[in-house]
UniProtKB/TrEMBL annotation:
Signal peptide: none annotated. This is Spermatogenesis-associated protein 20-like TRX domain-containing protein. CDD domains: SSP411. Transmembrane segments: none annotated. Residues 89-250 form the Spermatogenesis-associated protein 20-like TRX domain. InterPro entries: 6-hairpin_glycosidase_sf, 6hp_glycosidase-like_sf, Ssp411, Ssp411-like_TRX, Thioredoxin-like_sf. PANTHER family: SPERMATOGENESIS-ASSOCIATED PROTEIN 20. One of its GO terms (biological process) is carbohydrate metabolic process. It comes from the Eukaryota. Coiled coil: none annotated. Pfam families: Thioredox_DsbH.
Length: 805
């Protein structure tokens, strides 16, 4: 069995000096200690040869001199040559100078493309991929020594499908396989030599090889003969070891993202910096997703603790509006106390999802109550009767005491005298005959002189004012006043209700009634997901209303275009309408997928498919992969950009990577799986160097790594037994799953897209669940608890499995 025989690398990415690297992707040939610790980039596995539309098959535009100029460049001569050649191969028809340098090797070279891929699959041969560029010295050396050698040429041509690739023409392909070589050897450079399966998965990689054995090192001929032997006699181990390396590469990005977040984590109050502190829901969702696949590790436990502690401290802090619900924009201090008082729709949407997720992973009702609290605020203060959602509430308003100037936080803060005047009643049975004001002020940190430090109030607008923050648990407050916890909860709720009435009488901050498609998409997800987890029909119905608003008011069916925005009572009447951008499509599609899982009404799935097709046409980059932020045909936009950071909102490419993966499972469109992979490849540098910048995209990468589960419920939508199985699924946080209903209608949207659903049926007339992954399904289960067990740990009372034909 071939082992790691030798390795010598002058430096990573070295263009000079003989770099000898052989990566043996066999059992035992790779260990985590061998992977590069410096410049590891994310390898994107391509499970099937790209389709004709794949950017991996489209040549990049370039300018070339005539082919004859380059025919003899490998030997360093200049100008055209009239010398006749003993050998010619199909590279003679190419334009790349580098490929033309190899046009007369005694090797049956192919350019990168479908012809080579098809031949590899038809003949079931491994691919030898050789990558370089026309001015690469050691590329020339390897050509003279090996590729012009008749014996080596014969071995290559008879046993491999040989592909020659110009890295400057196809940097995207070069990046993919160089990542493999770097990660498995610790070095890299050109020429790059990689051996692939017919499905384009690498299993051995290296750089320059001498032609024959030297000083105990295997030469290129020896390497080739050993690979041939392993391919013929030990192929499963060869391929599976390569797969393990690729999967380790994927997982490494998630581990690095966790480590970077852990390094920036502030332990006392949670969050990821000292001050100012932002909610950063994308970080919290990553941490909880990371925990789901690392439950038994110390890192997984730490990730969950970081997320839950941050969410708890935010909910207790002044960034959370304890009287009128919802969350303010960010905290100006490290303890989440004094906020910037603006309220943004996108924050409410993402935080509602984060809190309901926290309730799923922790089982704590506290987090579910906060999620409902957020949606209560949005329903009351940010909702339009059309079904849409307004964008924001301002931070500033006129103080209740009057005056010409607005002040930040005036609508939200309280003086101690206001609280005492509003809550004067003595509470019977309390120590010292405390008033309701005493209890409230103790619990929420209200002080006579105000509780805002001068450094948190640079303009002096909050002098003598109090920003409510929970200073004690209800248990400690109960002990302090000698009453029960239940009594404290009752008293505090009563006090908050009285203060809410007073708040309503104050001059309100400015309300931005603009309804943005993208932010409405985020809020659609929030109502759908919270409603689904809680089994709250009202919340789900509000999500349906939001979906209807988007389709009626922000979708131009005639032009097949999402509109960016509309305004209160003026939807579709803005002139001219602004067409939607990438985030509008991506966020709405995500919301529609969440709405389908909440309602199991396929009309939302169908519209999601329609929008994704349109997004691909408008924004996809055929050359580099990924999506442009705006329509690249718009000549008024001087620069075409792709956002590479998940910030206050997730980047649209991050959301799209997940959308494409989910939709590929719902529709059977394999091209969307490939697009998701190509998108992630396009951001591989960013993902592997600073994954903390793209935590939502790392979640999409993890979904690729762990493969989505397909949970199929066979039953009638509203039947009690179906509802029980659905409730079992929705009670769990399963970030890497798609949920679908098979109701027996073979003409349904899903059955037409996924014929296998027609073969799934109820057992003995009872609603039945199938859990499938990688085209293999568990035996059907009908008991909700058994389904929960299957989803959590992959086991049921039955160990048998069936294959989905």
């Amino acid at each position: 069995m071939l082992r790691l025989a030798w390795r010598r690398s002058a430096s990573k990415h070295s263009r000079a000096g003989p770099t000898c690297v052989l990566t043996a992707a066999y059992s035992g040939a790779y260990s985590p200690q061998q992977k590069s610790q410096g410049d590891l980039r994310c390898f994107r596995q391509i499970p099937h040869p790209p389709s004709d539309r794949s950017p991996l098959l489209h040549p990049r535009a370039a300018c070339y001199l005539s082919p004859s100029v380059f025919m003899s460049m490998a030997s360093g001569s200049e100008g055209p040559s009239s010398t006749s050649h003993k050998h010619s191969n199909r590279l003679a028809k190419e334009r790349s100078p580098y490929l033309l340098q190899h046009a007369h090797n005694p090797v049956d070279w192919y350019p990168w493309g479908k012809d080579a891929f098809d031949k590899a699959k038809n003949e079931d041969k491994p691919i030898f991929l050789s990558v370089g560029y026309s001015t690469c010295h050691w590329c020339h050396v390897m050509e003279r020594e090996s590729f012009e050698d008749e014996e080596i040429g014969k071995i290559l041509s008879e046993n491999f499908i040989c592909i020659k690739l110009d890295r400057e023409e196809r940097p995207d392909v070069d990046k993919v396989y160089m990542t493999f070589v770097q990660a498995t050897s610790g070095g890299g450079g050109w020429p790059m030599s990689v051996w692939l399966t017919p499905e384009l998965r690498p299993f051995i990689g290296g750089t320059y090889f001498p032609p024959r054995d030297r000083g105990g090192r295997p030469g290129f001929k020896t390497v080739l003969t050993r690979i041939i032997d392993q391919w013929q006699n030990n192929r499963p181990a060869l391929e599976s070891s390569g797969e393990r390396i690729i999967e380790a590469l994927k997982k490494d990005v998630a581990n690095r993202c966790f480590q970077q977040l852990a390094h920036s984590y502030e332990e006392e109050y949670g969050g990821f910096r000292d001050a100012p502190k932002f909610p950063s829901p994308v970080n919290l969702m990553f941490l909880m997703s990371y925990w789901t696949v690392n439950r038994s590790t110390s890192e997984g436990v730490e990730a969950l603790q970081m997320a839950l502690h941050t969410l708890r401290m935010m909910a207790l802090g002044g960034i959370h509006d304890h009287i009128a619900q919802g969350f303010h924009r960010y905290s100006t201090d490290s303890s989440w106390h004094v906020p910037h008082f603006e309220k943004m729709l996108y924050d409410q949407a993402q935080l509602a999802v984060a809190y309901i997720t926290a309730s799923q992973v922790s089982g704590e009702q506290f987090f579910a109550e906060v999620a409902k609290d957020v949606l209560l605020y949005v329903s009351r203060d940010l909702s339009d009767k059309s079904g849409g959602f307004y964008s924001a509430e301002d931070a500033d308003s006129v103080p209740a005491s009057g005056g010409p100037e607005k002040r930040e936080g005036a609508f939200c803060v309280w003086t101690a005298s206001e609280v005492r005047e509003l809550l004067p009643d003595v509470v019977e049975g309390t120590a010292g005959n405390a008033t309701l004001a005493d209890i409230f002020m103790h619990h929420y940190g209200v002080k006579e002189q105000g509780n805002v430090a001068p450094e948190q109030d640079p303009h002096g607008e909050l002098q003598g004012q109090n920003v409510l923050i929970v200073r004690y648990s209800v248990e400690l407050t109960a002990a302090r006043f000698g009453i029960t916890v239940e009594k404290v909860n009752e008293l505090l709720a009563s006090a908050r209700a009285k203060m809410a009435v007073v708040r309503k009488s104050r001059p309100r901050p400015h309300l931005d009634t603009k309804m943005l498609a993208s932010w409405n998409g985020l809020m659609l997800s929030a109502y759908a997901r919270v409603g689904a987890v809680l089994g709250d029909k009202d919340l789900v119905e509000r999500a349906v209303k939001a979906g209807g608003f988007l389709k009626e008011h922000l979708w131009d069916a005639k032009q097949q275009t999402i509109l960016r925005s509309c305004y209160q009572l003026k939807c579709f009447n803005t002139s001219p309408s602004i067409s939607g951008f990438l985030d509008d499509y991506a966020f709405i599609i995500c919301g529609l997928l969440d709405l389908y899982e909440a309602t199991l009404q396929t009309e939302w799935l169908q519209w999601a498919e329609e929008l994704q097709l349109r997004q691909d046409v408008l924004f996809w980059d055929d050359q580099g992969g990924g999506y442009f932020c705006s329509d690249p045909t718009d000549s008024t936009v001087l620069l075409q950009l792709k956002e590479d950071q998940d910030g206050a909102e997730p980047s649209a490419n991050s959301v799209s990577a997940f959308n494409l993966l989910r939709l590929s499972h719902y529709t059977g469109r394999q091209e969307w799986l490939q697009k998701s992979q190509q998108l992630l490849t396009a951001f591989s540098d960013r993902l592997t160097t600073v994954p903390i910048a793209l935590p939502e995209m790392v979640r999409a990468l993890m979904a690729q790594h762990y493969t989505l589960k397909q949970i199929v419920i066979c039953g009638q939508r509203d039947a009690p037994d179906t509802t029980s199985l659905l409730a079992a699924v929705k009670s769990l946080f399963l970030p890497y799953k798609v949920l679908m209903l098979a109701d027996g209608d073979t003409e349904s949207f899903l059955c037409q897209r996924l014929p296998v659903l027609s073969s799934m049926s109820q057992l003995r007339g009872v609603a039945t669940a199938y859990v499938c992954q990688d085209f293999t399904c568990s035996l059907p289960v009908t008991d909700p608890q058994e389904l929960r067990r299957l989803l959590l740990d992959g086991t049921t009372e039955h160990a048998d499995r069936m294959t989905a034909e």
